[in-house]
Amino acid sequence: MVRGNTMSRSRTRRTFLTQAGGVAAGFLLPITSDAAPVATRATSRPLVSARPKSRVVIARDDQLTRGHLNQHRELLHKLINAAMQRLTNAADPVSAWRQLFHPTDRIGIKVNTLGLSTQPVVVDAIVAGLRQAGIPAENILIWDRFDVELSRAGFKLNKSRSGVQCRGTDAEHYGSGYTKRIESSGQIGSCFSQIVAKHVNVLISVPVLKDHNLAGVSLGMKNFYGAIHNPNKYHDNNCDPYIVDTVSHRYIGPKWKLTVCDATQAQHHAGPTRHPSFAWPFGGLILSRDFVAADAVATDLLETERKAQGLKSLEQERRPAKHILTAGARQLGECDLSKIQRIEV
User: Fold this and answer.
1) Which whole-number Å values give the CA distances from 232 to 138, 174, 273, in the listed order?
2) Which residues share a beta bridge with 341?
3) Which residues, other chains included, contact 8 with Cβ-Cβ below 8 Å and sequence gap of 6+?
4) CA distance to 78, 90, 345, per residue, from 17 (Å)
5) Are 337 and 300 in contact (CB under 8 A)?
6) Tens digit of each residue's pLDDT (9 = 90 or more) over 78-120
7) Which among 64, 98, 137, 318 is placed 20 to 30 Å from 270, CA to CA?
8) Tens of pLDDT along 267-324?
9) How far is CA 38 from CA 2, 128, 197, 302, in A?
């Protein structure tokens, strides 16, 4: 079960949310960042030993399924702070964010603006958490492929040097924002966004919980197809192993600190384009420091919803999310659900 139905469970969750949301962002000494060093070879991958034990936090509240999401800004802030505390075992939200991020980090928040998009209010909650950790606003960059897609999804562009930045890779003109040199990683050969290549040293992936007509799911790993110039070339064989080759690259894997899957509004079928008839009011967020575990748990939730709706499994539709198993086999993270600690808030 994703959510408990008992009254005591509800009270416990709301008490924890109240405590998490009520902690002031007081002065704390920053801790050293645990970001893995950037490797020198394009095909190298982050060390498995450096990753924390696989833990995925599922934070939900029925209120998020009612009305407009912008009406629930305060609740989202409390919910993500509570999830971060459970993810890190920290005593308060500020300490939780500071376990993962350092004031000198340059952080790229990769959103998804294709089809059902990442909600700006969710990203606002993440930014608020980073600001609690002492990250200067100017060190935070919200990004995707194109300015026009970000604007269409409701994000406010900011290309100035003041405040939180928000822009597409191709902010100037088509093809302008990618590295000139083709980088090889496994079976892909691509030019990468200069945002991941030059401008940030820490990444947060903020995908949407949604189905994909070829890869099975479009989650944290698939989100980084938006970091290469030619993702159209890599959709054969359910996008496997190309998704994993992309995130294994030194520009992405070693910099990836956190996945916050936006499941406030989800889609269980016919993705990645938006189809309101398959909308799924999940009303929550899925967080993990292990990007493979995050995708594995999110896929399990999606498969459960598909079954509840009388749909075939992704395997039966010949579009299994095999890239998640490939990532696990390469020891990029944990894909075995029985070995993932799943925590509900």
Assistant:
1) 33, 16, 15
2) 55
3) none
4) 6, 14, 8
5) yes
6) 999 999 999 999 999 999 999 999 999 999 999 999 999 999 9
7) 64
8) 999 999 999 999 999 999 999 999 999 999 999 999 999 999 999 999 999 999 999 9
9) 37, 27, 11, 33
